[in-house]
Amino acid sequence: MKSVPQLFVIIFALMLGLGACTSQAEDPNDVAAMFWESVQAKQLDSAKQYVTWDSAKHLNYFTDERMKIASYEFAEPVVKEDVIAIDTIVVLERKDKDNVRLPTKTVLVKTEGVWRVELKQTLAAVLERSADKFANQLNQIFQQGISEIDKALAESVGELSGSLEQGAKELGNALEQNAGDLSNSLKQFQLELEQHRDKK
Fold it and tell me: Keywords of this protein's UniProt record, alphabetized (predicted)?
């Protein structure tokens, strides 16, 4: 039979364990932070305790040297029942280039009363957010292209308008000159006609 002090120690340890679980369940931000800190330190065994059992196999992606994390940033979490999504920026370290900022969201679900990172959804969000970012950049390039086309068309219309105006002016001058020549010819013809009549 265990002594009273031993029973007290066991009960106290159980209470601490339950308290830790409750604290972990109530602080999904802390769970997300501890997960990314473990991944950043390449301590994948430690990171495994913060992810769901089904998604733990996806930790292998972080063994790739290209997935060396320099830092991470969190925004405000979005809570939907037993799912929490935290907008996250993961900064990947590059030796000879600028660091790469990957937008994603850290997805947490409650399993057995404890918040854990759903890694499959978290990694899928990287692809989704990166695709959105690429689409936005492509749209900006497209819009910039449209602006350049509009500018070129405006310049072309301006040049065409100037050419038409110049052409109209030259045509007017030509008509005016021809009208003057025609008037002189008519006067000369009238003078010759009068001289011819006088001779008769």
Answer: Signal
